[in-house]
Amino acid sequence: MDLLNAFVVLSNFVLIPAIAYGSQLALGALGVTLIYGILRFSNFAHGDTMAFGTMATILITWWLQSLGVSFGPLPTALLALPFGIAVCVLLILFTDRFVYRFYREQKAKPVIFVIVSLGVMFIMNGLVRFIIGPNDQRFADGERFIISVREFKALTGLKEGLAIKTTQGITVITAVLVVAALFYFLNRTRTGKSMRAYSDNEDLALLSGINPERVVMVTWLIVAALATVAGVLYGLDKSFKPFVYFQLLLPIFAAAIVGGLGNPLGAIAGGFTIAFSEVMITYAWKKVAKYALPESLEPDGLAQLLSTDYKFAVSFVILLIVLLFRPTGLFAGKSV
Amino acid sequence: MAEAMNNQDAFLIGDTMTGGYGAGPDILHDCTVAVNPGEIAVIVGPNGAGKSTAMKAVFGMLNVRQGSVRLDGQDITSLSPQDRVSRGMGFVPQTANIFTSMTVEENLEMGAFIRRDDYAETMEQVYTLFPILKEKRRQAAGELSGGQRQQVAVGRALMTQPKVLMLDEPTAGVSPIVMDELFDRIIEVARTGIPILMVEQNARQALEIADKGYVLVQGRNAYTGTGKELLADPEVRKSFLGG
Amino acid sequence: MSDTMRNTVYFAGIAVLIIGTGLVYSWDNAMFILNFGLVSAIMALGVNLQWGFAGLFNVGIMGFVALGGLATVLVSMPAVPEAWRAGGGGILISLLLGAATVVLAVYAFAKLPKGWVRGLAMTVILIGGFFLYRAMFDPAVGAVEAVNPAIEGYLGGLGLPVIVAWPVGGLFAAGAAWVIGKTALGLRSDYLAIATLGIAEIIVAVLKNEDWLARGVKLVYGIPSATPDPIELQNTPSFVERATGLGIDPVQASTLWVKLIYAGLFTAVLVLLFILAQRALNSPWGRMMRAIRDNEVAAEAMGKDVTARHLQIFILGSAICGMAGAMATTLDGLLAPQSYQPLRWTFLIWVMVIVGGSGNNLGAVLGGFLIWWLWVMVEPLGHYLMVLITAGMADGSALKEHLLDSAAHMRLLTMGLVLLLVLRFSPRGLIPER
């Protein structure tokens, strides 16, 4: 038994990746949950909004790289991020003005909004494929590791190594900053509070003189920013592929629902719940078990509960369990 | 008597209003309600008499086809509820009248949303009127008891420093003890000089504190008088106050 | 213009589109559009049942279609006896074991009093059952997949006529719909959407990864046809004679003939389902469904069991999609799980229903044909458009090449645009509900 090495292996293959992935999901789920809270529909175009923002960031990254601009050890994409957000914001505001607003004025049912968001999803998906193509794009540059396996081993003298990728570090730090800023905004500023008020009780918010169109616009601004940040972080950490972003819709929605739709805190908790379950259930535990268990108990197989191909099944099953036993989510969202 | 009470120059008056929701049938027929500074005016009547409708008409939430609504001498019949709020009308709906997920203090801040000046003083005044709110100001409003929620709701409406306050059944669903306390608070608000127009289900108790009472029946003014007069009127007692 | 006139014009328009495609491109192409148009129309009919009649928002159509595809393999392919000997029994037993575990856990949940004992019991049952299941399942799967992996490596099917697979596909889909419906119906509409989206991804993931079942991404080729084999036809003297008599090349004639037979079969299915759907729509049952859709609260107050009715129609609609999925796979002659893309098999069907006219069966059929034609033709038409746009650009310029390469992605843009435009300017579709 060697618990220290077991913990290192666990950190390297489970904890660190899950924390990074959880942060990305949480940012995505925050976007979904904000739209749900303010505009009151499930936005199926969210995955493709993430893809669009990321694509804009990638194109600007390439342009910066061609100019010879770099961000030292950090990825150039971070420099491009604000511009990517700006492009995404423009598209989103354009969409709201020419698509969603009409249905708001009509006071259409939520399900109509959902179907409209399908149309928007098609168009954004098409745009992304049209502009950058359907293939994998890698755009991370700069230093690859904060600490590599070799450095870690040399540093600690342990048998097992641990690597923290720069992108993982950036993901977590950015996510913390963004979430802190978002919560500051929602809880401390006049506009943020007016958004919460609108989400809580629309009629009373109108009575209090809160301008709904302004609330909606600010929401879209934040959502575009969150989606772009989430998408870029995911793309840096893994890679950018339009279809994968579409598929992220499922874990993101699962995270938002598990946490309680409309509840920002819940979205974060849900993101990490989904990410940890997904990583832990699809991880082959043999290596951890080798260190953590006495030799006689060592598993013969990989000790993997499910193959990684079934990671969607994990979010789905968690989703079903929540829907069955606690439809309002862990943090009591607004829906039944 | 009624003519004298319905002073054409009242501070807030819904004057001979006829109308209904949207294009629907008329619910109000030549209905008049009015209130002056320092007064509490109460609208009572049997279920379905159009009490709340009359108040909503004054607040611009339904279609007034004949008659007019005037505030401080100005015709506001065509204004939206939001515009009426910025003209100085405060309205407390019967249900869903607070932001349940927000703290008491945030509820008050949202009440002051249209104000661009410093509202700290107003908030202190509200806290003085409703001391319990100060105690619970960091708590989510949804966690409070029914009576406390109503205080939050009234406090929220007071944050705009309204020139007139309208309450739609403020004591619906609270216990008699809480009801008495709420009425006490409402009297205190009225003493600060704000005219109060309110709809009440608990007719007897409401008329006891009313300077002016309107009994509506089927969207029409049936009886009008001071609270005391109505309480003493045998007809009113027999029909509406249970003897 | 009367409704009948208008509808006739619409369908004549579809005929013109398909025949025009045949004249301009090839008859092969036209038949392809016609046959998949029929399949699409059936799917649209199923979705219209759910959405148009009951207002249920199902975005897992792809999953039900894929189950139909699986049914084709399981019903029509010959069994692989060697694989069965190697691990068939093991797989069956382990699947039963897995099912037993779930049943036992549910039983424990229902019978034991609430508290930590129940939680513990369920955990023990589930985890123990899972490991037992895996211990049986893994070696059996390994053995099966080792049998002649280049062309087999799976258990095969029952070797029955492929047409049997169509209703079986419907049954498979109905089963999946029952599970989803039981959990997500009765909650808000968005939840059904997410749940169906999820089940569809999982079904396709199973198809891709469980090689013992249907060879996963290695594809199952040579699914028996429901028609005569074209090669055989070419060797039949009477057929060749008749073809040459009509002045058609026998090879071409044989493939066209096969496609015509399919068109006939599919049309028969479509007509049958259409008649059933029409009768259902106008029956008391259909009126009740629409009453529920229009005012759930009132229907519930009148004593209608809304959730049960919804479950019923959700299962029916999904079964139709499963059936259509089996037909599509039969027509293709192969099962390729990687071809199941949600944009193609779920969202495209939605465009068909919305454009055609939700709540109207004829509209759904029309939308099925029209949008399918558009989906197929946007690519060549988009290419022409790009050629036109780029005509003035220098050959070899990066932009020109990019634009020409990207023509393929015009599809999604067009579909999104069509959907949004219809929703905005003609929300009730081409043939609105009466």
For the structure shown, list the relevant keywords.
heterotrimer; A: 336 residues; mainly alpha; ABC transporter involved in vitamin B12 uptake, BtuC; 2 strands; 72% helix; globular; C: 434 residues; 18 helices; 77% helix
Widest beta sheet: strand line-up of chain B: 6-7-8-3-9-10
Rg of chain B to the nearest angstrom? Answer: 17 Å
According to CATH, what is the class of chain A?
Answer: Mainly Alpha
Name the strands of the widest sheet of chain A in spatial order.
1-2
CATH architecture label of the domain at 1-88 and 193-243 in chain B: 3-Layer(aba) Sandwich
How do the SSEs of chain A run, as a string of H and E? HHHHEHEHHHHHHHHH
**How is the main sheet of chain A built?**
2 strands, antiparallel
The total of helices of chain A stands at 14
Quote the beta fraction of chain B: 15-25%
Highest CATH level, the class of the domain at 1-88 and 193-243 in chain B? Alpha Beta
Cα(first) to Cα(last) distance of chain A is 48 Å
Low-pLDDT segments of chain B: none
The low-confidence runs of chain A, each spanning 5 or more residues with pLDDT under 50, are none
Number of helices of chain B: 11
What coarse outline of chain B follows from CA principal-axis ratios? globular
Helix vs. strand class of chain A? mainly alpha
Describe the oligomeric state of these chains in a short phrase: heterotrimer
